[in-house]
Amino acid sequence: MSWEEMGTESVTCPCGKGKIVRTNYGDDWNRFKESISICCPECSKKYDLVTKSWYKHAGDYGDAYYLLEKNYPEYTGVNLQDVFPDKVDINKIPFVEYLIKTYKRTDLFDVERELNNVTAVSRLTGIAADIAQKHKRAFDSAKITVLRQCVAEAGRRYNEFADNKEHRLPIEEQERQERYAYEEEKRKHMIFIPCKEIGND
Ligand SMILES: [Zn+2]
């Protein structure tokens, strides 16, 4: 089935000489989509269209459109992936390593104590229960003796790994702050395109 044009809507572009046009399409299956374009030679040279999804309700997302000056710089701040390139994937690295890179050392010590005090995995709470569940999901088993061994080894070998969680944490926090500042600044350069809500049946 092909898309059929349902209607268009436009607003004046920033320079005032042209328009930003949104076209709505629908098909026989009651599906809708839209496309948006800058119909102004001057503004299309100067801006890129940016679409941002925003959460409406109950798993429903809406699109908001913005203009952003061309060649606006990308984020260049701190990036955890650059500092510690190895991915922390439970299915690709030894479980002990996964623990070291995912949990704080103090948390692992608490878990070790808890593991030594219970006899059944079902009795575990908090992070210990979380670790047992992850082991179960990844390896299809979660024996308390195995967990004890892994967590104890993770505690012993914690500092062997430069990308342990304790070292990741400050970088994660720095990246969060820098990305937030970047987005805040970028927002100032974005021009919102007011479009009416459509396609809601
Ligand atoms: Zn224009």
Fold and architecture overview:
A hairpin with a 6-residue loop joins strand 1 (4-12) and strand 2. Helix content is 41%, strand content 25%. The protein is α+β, with helices and mostly antiparallel strands and 201 residues long. The radius of gyration is 26 Å and the shape is elongated. It has 2 domains: 4-72 and 190-200, no CATH class; 85-161, no CATH class. The chain contains 7 helices and 6 strands. The chain has helices at 41-46, 80-83, 95-102, 105-117, 126-139, 144-156, 165-188; strands at residues 4-12, 19-26, 32-39, 47-57, 60-69, 190-193. The strands form 2 sheets. A 3-stranded antiparallel beta sheet has the order 1-2-3. A 3-stranded antiparallel beta sheet has the order 4-5-6. Bound molecules: zinc ion (ZN).
Helix content: 40-55%
Low-confidence stretches: 197-201
Total number of helical segments?
Answer: 7
Shape label: elongated
Secondary-structure blueprint of this entry?
Elements: E1 4-12, E2 19-26, E3 32-39, H1 41-46, E4 47-57, E5 60-69, H2 80-83, H3 95-102, H4 105-117, H5 126-139, H6 144-156, H7 165-188, E6 190-193
Antiparallel strand pairs: 1-2, 2-3, 4-5, 5-6
Helix pairs in contact: 3-6, 4-6
Bound molecules: zinc ion.
